[in-house]
Amino acid sequence: MxxxxxxxxxxxxxxxxxxxxxxxxxxxxxxxxxxxxxFKRLPVRESWQLQYRLEMFNGLNHANLGSPRSxxxxxxxxxxxxxxGPRIIQMGLRMTF
Length: 97
Description:
- By secondary structure, the protein is mainly beta.
- It has a domain at 35-97.
- The protein has no helices and three strands.
- It has strands at 36-43, 49-57, 88-96.
- A three-stranded antiparallel β-sheet has the order 1-2-3, with no helix packed on it.
- The termini are far apart.
């Protein structure tokens, strides 16, 4: 995503001095994530249980954009070129006794 913010508003300060831009003045896009899990307990014996687990991370597979490049001396300043990972589904069995 090109041009998340306008880099012409920022200039490099002279050598040996600090700039006047405030801390955390560039905020990236929001993050939307839905994680959930399902569990089912199955009795095996009197004191034994088998638990089936299904867990989903980023369940709706929503692409969350990363932070924009904020180094004003870089060539691609203001661009977002990273996203979050894909949906992850994991299943497992757990035996307790």
